[in-house]
Amino acid sequence: NGKSLEDFCRTFLGAKNGGPDVRGYGLKDLADVLNQVVSDDWQKTLERRTMVVDATPPLEGIRRSGWKLTYKDKAGELCKAREADERVLYHIASIGAVMNDDGKIIDVILDGVVDKAKLGPGMKVLGVNERKFSSERLQEALAATAKGSEKLRLLIEHQDVVKTVSLPYDGGLRFPHLEFTSEGYDYPSAILQQRVPTHRLMP
User: In Å, what is the CA distance from 124 to each residue of 98, 128, 135, 181, 189?
Assistant: First the structure.
């Protein structure tokens, strides 16, 4: 019907002229506005996406848009920019952990390698394979696991306990990337395309 995410945002987020207006909303409100843009069973879709636990990410929309999720041994530009800006290390797709650049674990992925080793937020990585922790050494150690030459051993500090934990991981460095397959209309690029002004300002 020629409508897009922009139409939804304009309708849902748009406000009348005047002062600040704080309004609450629920799932049904979202579904009602989405139905104004494109008629569908949005209530059911939103409930499935927000309330049902799934073992795999919802990639159907990405595939329909001509893209696919792949993994590479190098981080993408967005990931590198986030790491530099936030001073964190994103190793979610490999060992399932996010940590500060000083080794403190911030978050872990449920049932990921780090989670299964009973490590969690608040613990700190002091060393990697008998060497003092650094982001570069962790990267090197992760890369070495793909060659089968060395296991990943982390020296962990938690409260007043320090112990070495061996992680059963051999997948190497692993970062998510989206690749265009040319199979379908490229909706994400169309949505993210920079808006072109429809008029010129008077000099």
Answer: 11, 11, 13, 40, 39
Pairing of strands 161-167, 97-100: unpaired
A 10 A CB-CB count for 95 gives: 25
What are the residue ranges in the chain where pLDDT is below 50? 199-203
The amino acid at 98: V
pTM over 0.90: no
What is the chain's percent helix, strand, coil content, to nearest 5?
Answer: 35, 25, 45
3-state DSSP assignment of residue 96: coil
Helices (H), the chain: 5-13, 27-37, 42-51, 60-64, 77-86, 113-116, 135-145, 187-192
- Alpha-carbon distance values, 47 to 22, 29, 40, 42 (Å): 24, 13, 13, 8
Amino acid at 34: L
Measure the CA–CA gap between 66 and 180, rounded to whole angstroms.
6
Residue 109's nearest CA partner among 92, 122, 127, 126 is: 92
Residues 153, 169: Cα–Cα separation, whole Å = 10
pLDDT value at residue 100: 96
